[in-house]
Amino acid sequence: MGRARLSGIPDLKMSLPIVAKGWVPADLFAYPEVVIKVQNISLDPESRRAWRGPDEVALSRKEFDLVHALITRAGDIVTRDELMRDVWHTSFWTSSKTIDVHLGWVRRKLGDDSRSPHLITTIRGKGLRFEKATPAA
Known about the structure:
Layout: E1 2-5, E2 15-18, E3 36-38, E4 41-44, E5 49-52, E6 55-57, H1 61-71, E7 77-78, H2 80-87, H3 97-110, E8 120-123, E9 127-130
Antiparallel strand pairs: 1-2, 3-4, 4-5, 5-6, 7-9, 8-9
Helix pairs in contact: 1-3
């Protein structure tokens, strides 16, 4: 009995016994796409695409990684140390300007006003938080 390797299934690697050569159940590949949606922002980690409402937003690789790191923990504070580790893959840094610059670009592209943000808020002395809902005025 042979074994087939499946790829393209996020975070899941498996091998299945194949009884008849070349036969794979049709519904095996019928997995729904996983799209993260918070407020009016949608993020597809598989295709690395983002939308604001119905409009697609073009994000650079680091911008996408930054949004992904925040939106997957929506409602929780993410520290700058965690962002440097998860997005820039480093455990040391000398300036938070790297995060601030990318955050400015992301806010602009997602339509988030930096003076009165409703998507990504800065929690002074703690980090950043992707808001689950629009904060009350």
